[in-house]
Amino acid sequence: MINRSESTNFSNLSSDLIHNFKQLFKFIDIDNDNSINKEDIQKLIRIINLNEKVDVNEMFPAGSDSITYPEFLSIMGKLFQGFPNDQQLREALTNFADETNQMDLNKINAEQLFSYLQKTDFYIKEQDTFLKQWKHFILSESGTTYFLGESFLKTFE
């Protein structure tokens, strides 16, 4: 749960990422009242058909039913604190790239990548689930399933 007295923590976010968070905030603010309230979150959960049990109350400060954009941005800043930057992600993905051309980050063996992610306590435990949930970054070609690293990195631009 967040605490309203906590200072804003978004200085480590790029201007592009802040812009993307603004767009996300507007998307979640279904009733367009410039705040995200519990009803907005509940509607969003229904829209995206989130199957897991979500405690909406944990998303808001004690005694509040809504958060403003600066509060939302502060939450995102905390979540991204310590998150690797583009270059660090690129270097990490390079370790999984096809040995013949390590600069082609769209030739990352998805099976090997998932095997490594399992060792890091990744939230997805089954490879089939990983492939389905990350299908926008998956390509099957000549019997090999690849993770499209460049496409993944573009989501952070």
From TrEMBL:
The keyword Acetylation does not apply. It comes from the Eukaryota. PROSITE patterns: EF_HAND_1, EF_HAND_2. Gene3D superfamilies: EF-hand (1.10.238.10). The keyword DNA-binding does not apply. Keywords: Calcium, Repeat. Residues 16-51 form the EF-hand domain. One of its GO terms (molecular function) is calcium ion binding. This is EF-hand domain-containing protein. It comes from Hanseniaspora guilliermondii.
